[in-house]
Amino acid sequence: xxxxxxxxxxxxxxxxxxxxxxxxxxxxxxxxxxxxxxxxxxxxxxxxxxxxxxxxxxxxxxxxxxxxxxxxxxxxxxxxxxxxxxxxxxxxxxxxxxxxxxxxxxxxxxxxxxxxxxxxxxxxxxxxxxxxxxxxxxxxxxxxxxxxxxxxxxxxxxxxxxxxxxxxxxxxxxxxxxxxxxxxxxxxxxxxxxxxxxxxxxxxxxxxxxxxxxxxxxxxxxxxxxxxxxxxxxxxxxxxxxxxxxxxxxxxxxxxxxxxxxxxxxxxxxxxxxxxxxxxxxxxxxxxxxxxxxx
Length: 295
Prior knowledge:
This protein has a single domain (5-293), classed as Rossmann fold (3-Layer(aba) Sandwich). The protein is an alpha/beta fold. 34% of the residues lie in helices and 16% in strands. It is globular and about 60 Å long. The chain is built from ten helices and eight strands. α2 (57-62) links the parallel β1 (48-50) and β2. α5 packs antiparallel against α6. The longest helix has 17 residues, at 87-103.
């Protein structure tokens, strides 16, 4: 059953001047339709929790006054904690990476040198620049050892000046949030009655090559969501919806009765599929997300 959009008003936009666009390039990020997701959030709730932070697109669009965001990926959390505590550090990290790439004999050689440094010692500074300069924002890792294997992107990364404007804008958007390095099994139980939890975990049908996806269990997540629902917590879950231009619905093992409503949100053409198909046309690869609500 589709929920009427009018029941959940869209929150006011945060005006921060120049600096639009995502902070990180991240496959599966909700930048283009974050506000559509937010339109389905309850009118009132306590603390906002986001236990699969990723690119932070929904968090930034919502800009909560009281938010808790977490992720299991330590280098990623290092980026967010730096944004919260010392935004100038992010600008410096990006500037260093940009100069390394542009001063190398070729853009690809500069990128590969930064990637080699990251793989030798995973860290937020290198990850930040790699996420903005890798192919399609597909930050993928080998399952056996966590090696980042994404090649260099086709286009040059944005200028340090443009990135600095994004940092300033995003620092305002996430000012009300606190960031923690933790697993969803640690973070979701902290949500209390009347709080809202938004989950955007790795997708089972499409994101097996991405960080953290290999060990993720939708069944285990559903157990935590059920416990939260019984505590009176509102939970919204973004998960696989359809593929092949919406003609095939992804079958998922979700307990009957756990969610009260289901809506589908058009995601356009799959960027992950573009990466896997090496740039071939994607007219038959449009997908949609499934948004499941416990309320």
